[in-house]
Amino acid sequence: MTSKLALTCFKLLSTLLQTKIAIWEGKSRIAISVFSNLALQICKLATNLTGQECKLQTSLSKRLSHHASNSLQTVAKTEHEHNFGFEPETARFLNLSS
Question: Which residues form the signal peptide (predicted)?
Answer without folding.
Answer: 1-22
